[in-house]
Amino acid sequence: xxxxxWLERLLSTSFFNICRSHSDAAxxxxxxxxxxxxxxxxxxxxxxxxxxxxxxxxxxxxxYHDVVRVSExxxxxxxxxxxxxxxxxxxxxxxxxxxxxxxxxxxSHLCQICGRNLLxxxxxxxxxxxxxxxxxxxxxxxxxxxxSASSSSSxxxxxxxxxxxxxxxxxxxxxxxxxxxxKGIPQRAPFRS
Length: 193
Prior knowledge:
5 helices, 23% helix, extended
């Protein structure tokens, strides 16, 4: 098993619809997903009444795309190789691939599935792309060691070697030079009468 049974359902679920049971309530958007039930999205109120003791993750929105906090998903899923971003001071990753903006500068790191530009030496831009890559190539897993069935240790060692060699090829970016606090003496605009 390369991925948990709930992952495909999570990636195909529509989030941020209004809950039918709690449509009059303030926090009634369906932005929660239960890993134990593997069913549709639900709201804050449904969580407290139907999923109190279950493993639940909260989906968030960034530029009209669904994201999940790394701190929540990495407890249940191996997210290695997936590009992460910092949004509103929280590290997140995208659930599904996003359209690539037209044009732009050439970059050396691309998602292996959709070709989206990546910031670092990551292989995938989203969980969805990693799932497609794993199904197509079989060279990876979402399973965390100790939680469920794991991939062979030789694959893990190869991945660690690959990551280490890429870090050697691409040294870290040096910090920017310090900036002076002032560029000069402030000048008033000329007075016009």
